[in-house]
Amino acid sequence: MTLDEKAELLAELGRAAAACTACDLSEHRTRVVFGSGSPGARVVFVGEAPGYNEDIRGEPFVGAAGKLLDELLREIVGITREDVYICNVLKCRPPDNRDPTAHEIETCKPFLVKQIEIIRPDVVCTLGNFATRTLTGRREGIGRLRRKTIRLEDRYVFPMFHPAAALHRGDLYDDVRKDFEALKQFLDEPPGIEPEPSQMELF
Predict the structure, then answer these.
(1) Taking the model in full, what pTM does it have?
(2) What is the H or E stretch that residue 179 is in?
(3) Number of domains observed in the structure of the chain
(4) Are 120 and 109 contacting, i.e. CB atoms less than 8 angstroms apart?
(5) Which label site among 65, 108, 113, 152 has the fewest CB atoms less than 10 Å from its CB?
(6) Domain CATH code at residue 59
(7) Residue 35 resides in a domain
(8) Domain enclosing residue 12, as ranges
(9) Which of 89, 77, 49 has its CA nearest to residue 65?
(10) 28-73: per-residue pLDDT in tens?
(11) Does a structural domain hold residue 160?
(12) DSSP characters over 56-96
């Protein structure tokens, strides 16, 4: 599939998301926050849900956590936001930034899965617990799963701390940086690991 074909499919999917009223979040949103970045990205970052700034602008990771993500990508991984694709599990902001409900996740998950299927990245970096659980089915916390590569079919999932963790808890800043250092190493030398049969159906 060419980049232009991928871009058109993503645009079509984005229009479907913008018209979605399948859960109550559609009643509170300012804008749907579908995703942004390169349709040919080698790396896809998946967060939890849009926040206030994202809801206003309709773009993912444009607040403080997004600025830190940009900084870590440039300084450690050696790439920019334009080189990757960024999205969230939920495409609409939950009121007061509360946690997503199981119904909201399951309702919105098909959009996320289709985004990944279109882009076909080498690795999906799940930022935090909700993204990791949604795409792997794992119930362990991100503190235990971070930097443990999980292969699902023809791509890897790479759980990481959400950049917001470093903003909320300064003592986690070094850990967040270490996650990006591990991502850099992974991209330079992808490990050879076998797929986990119990996870194969999730994509």
Answers:
(1) 0.91
(2) helix 173-188
(3) 1
(4) no
(5) 113
(6) 3.40.470.10
(7) yes
(8) 3-189
(9) 49
(10) 999 999 999 999 999 999 999 999 999 999 999 999 999 999 999 9
(11) yes
(12) HHT-SS-SHHHHHHHHHIIIII---GGGSEEEES-SSPPGG
- Tokens describing residue 179: 């996650």
Question: Hey, what amino acid is at 88?
Answer: N
* Nearest-angstrom CA–CA distance, 9 and 103: 26
CB contact at 8 A, 24 and 106: no
Q: Is the pLDDT of residue 195 over 70?
A: no
**Stretch 120-140: mean pLDDT:** 94
Q: Is the pLDDT of residue 102 over 80?
A: yes
Tell me the C-alpha to C-alpha distance, in Å, between residue 187 and each of 27, 79, 190: 40, 11, 6
**How far is the C-alpha of 147 from the C-alpha of 159, rounded, in Å?**
6
**Is the per-residue pLDDT at 193 higher than 60?**
no
* Closest to 134 in 3D by CA, of 161, 103, 95, 155: 103
Q: Is 70 exposed, middle or buried (0-12, 13-18, 19+ CB in 10 A)?
A: middle
E strands, the chain, in order? 36-37, 43-47, 85-88, 123-127, 150-152, 155-160
Answer yes or no: is 30 within a domain.
yes
